[in-house]
Amino acid sequence: MNTLSGPVLGFDFGTTRIGVASGQSLTGTASPLQPIAARDGIPDWNVLDKLISEWQPAALVIGIPLNMDGTISDMARRARKFANRLHERCKVPCFLIDERLTTREAKQISLSRGGSTNFKENSVDGIAAQLILEDWFASEQRIPSETRLEDLYGIGRN
Fold first, then answer.
1. pLDDT at residue 156, as a whole number
2. Which residue in 41, 60, 108, 157 has a CA-CA distance of 20 to 30 Å to 81?
3. pTM of the model
4. Which of 27, 93, 17 is nearest to 61 (CA)?
5. Alpha-carbon separation of residue 47 from 26, 34, 89, 133 (angstroms)
6. Burial (CB count within 10 angstroms: exposed 0-12, middle 13-18, buried 19+), residue 98
7. Based on the number of CB atoms within 10 Å of its own CB, is 26 exposed (0-12), middle (13-18) or buried (19 or more)?
8. Domains of the chain: which residue ranges?
9. Residue 31: left (phi > 0), alpha (psi -120 to 50), or beta?
10. Which residues contact 20 (CB under 8 A, 6 or more apart)?
């Protein structure tokens, strides 16, 4: 059972945008926020600092995009690095969660709501972050961000 009190922020790491969602552990629900621009996976840290200051989250959840066979992708390593830097900067508990297929599901949700098929202009990153956060709320597993990716879900190196 979740003992967190207060808002939780979820992140869908990307190289050009980082999706963000806010949620409450009490209800287990989340809502997308405006994505944060990134340059080759490096976010505007001032924008992130402002977001953390504004929301005062009890925890942060970062999606880790493992390959479908459970091996570690380059993006998973980069997302883990982002989680480490975020944790170091804000000193808020950070957790990891496997987020395979959330972007695909986010695109389907966006289209079902009448969204554009041009996902470069019509970002689904916030919806993906929402799905990541809601999955985390529904899960009993709490994987601290300092966990080695190789130990995540018992997977091996690729």
1. 45
2. 108
3. 0.81
4. 93
5. 27, 11, 13, 20
6. buried
7. exposed
8. 7-152
9. beta
10. 9, 10, 11, 12, 32, 33, 34, 35, 36, 51, 125, 126, 129
Percentage helix, strand, coil, to 5, in the chain?
A: 35, 25, 35
The CATH T-level fold of domain 7-152 is Nucleotidyltransferase; domain 5 (3.30.420)
CA distance 139 to 123: 26
Residue listed under structure tokens 């987020």: 99
Using only the alpha carbons of the chain, give its radius of gyration. Answer: 15
Residue 43: count of CB within 10 angstroms of its CB = 23
pLDDT in tens, 16-27: 999 999 999 888
Q: What is the pLDDT of residues 111-140, one digit of tens each?
A: 666 665 544 545 688 888 999 999 899 888
Cα–Cα distance, 118 to 140 (Å, whole number): 36
Cα end-to-end span (Å), the chain: 33
Structure tokens at 96: 């990891």
Cα 130 from Cα 30, distance rounded (Å): 5
pLDDT tens across 29-75, in order? 999 999 999 999 999 999 999 999 999 999 999 998 887 777 788 88
